[in-house]
Fold this protein.
Amino acid sequence: MLALGLTLLSIAPWASGPDPLREGAVDVRTTAIAVLRDSRRREGPSHEVVVERLVRCGTEVLDPLLDLLCERKLPALCEPERAQTLSEPQREMIVAALSRWSARAVLANMDARVELDPSEPIRVAALYVYGSHGSARELDHVLELATLQPALPDGATDLSADLAEALRTAVARILGRDERGFRDLSRVIGRAGADQARPILFALGDTGNACSIPALASAMSIHPELAAIAISQARRVGASMDHEANGALSSAVRPHLGAARVELASAAARTLGELCDAASAQRLVELLDAAEPALAESAHWSLRRMSGLDFGPCREAWVAWLASEREWWNGEASERIDELVRGSRATRLAAVASVGARTWRRHEAALALVAALRDNDPVLREAACHALGQLGAPLSLPHLVETLSDSDPRVSRAAREALESIAGTNLPDTAEECARALHIAP
C-alpha cells in the first residue's frame, strides 16, 4: 500500500489538501480523471493547480486528456460516485494543460481523431484544441472543422449551439495570439455561409481588437443579413488606426440609420459615434427629434462621442456646432494647417490649438497635427501631443508611440499622457511594450 502511494505521488505531486486519488489509481488516465473530479469539490484546488497537476503527469496524459475532451464526461472512479458531465471550467483546464505541449503533436493527434470519427463531439473538441494551439494559417481548417459533414444533418444549414460556441472561441483565441489572422478573415468569411459567419463575427468582437474593422466591413457586404451583428461588434472593438477601413465600415453602417427596426437604427447610430464618422453628423442631428426615444437617445450619445461636447438633447445647439465646424473647415482650415509648419512659435502654437479643437473631422485634424510631432521645437511637439490626446483619433497612436522616445522628457511624458488618454488605460513602460499593447505592427 505504501508503494502504491509513492507511485501516485510520483505521477502527480499534490499541493496541500486532501489527496483526490483513489486506491488503485496508478495509470495516467485515472490520475487525470481524479484530478479533474477533485476540481469540482467545494474546497477543491484552483485552476492553475489543476493544470500543473495534469502537466506533471507527463506526455503520456495527452491521449487520455483528448479522450476526456471528446467524450465530455468524467467517469466515476468508485462507488457511490456518478459520472460527471465535463464542465466548462474542467474543459478549460484540459485545454490549458494541452497548451503546454507541442502544437504539432497535439494538432496531429486531434486531426487523426477527426479523420476516424468526424462526429460533432470530436470536432467540438478539435475546435477548442485549435483555439489553444492553432495559428492564423489554420483559420481555414477551423472553419472546415465546424462545417464538415455530418455536422449539419438532414440538409440543415445551422450550426449546433456547441459547434457555434466552439468556433467562436477558437477564432477569438487564434486571433488573440496571431494578429496576422485579421488579414485573412475577409476571405474566410467569404467562404462561410451566414450561419458559420455569425460566430466568427462574435469572435471578432470578443478580441476587442480594432484590427477587426476591415473584416466586419466585408461581412456586411458578403452577408447583409448579419448587419445587426456586425454593427454591434464594431462598436465593441471601436475605431481602428486605419482611417480608410473606418470609412469603409461607416459607409456600410450609415444606411441602417433609417432601419425600420429601432434597435438596429439605434445600434447603427452608436457605432457611427464610436467610429467618429463625420459624414453621419447631419443625420444624427436630425434624429435628435426622432419619435422613438431610444433612437433619439442613441443619436445624442453618438454626437457627444463624436464631438467631445455635450449640449444636451437640444437640436438647435447641435445645429450651431455643426455649422461652426463646417464654416471652419470650408474657410480657415487650410491656412491654419499650413501654419503648423510655418511662421513663428506663437503662430504655430496657435495653429496647434485651433486644429486640435476641431472634433467634427477629428481624423483629418489629427493627421495634420502628426506632422508637428517632428518639429524641431520641443514646445511645439509637446503641444501637439496634448492636442492629439484631446482629439482622441486612433490613427495618431503609432506616431505617439514613436514620440515616447523623444529626447525631451516633457515631450515624451506628453506623448504617454496622450496615448493613455486615447487608449483609456495605463500602458507599459517601454515603447515596444506599448506598441504590442496597442496592437501596433512593428
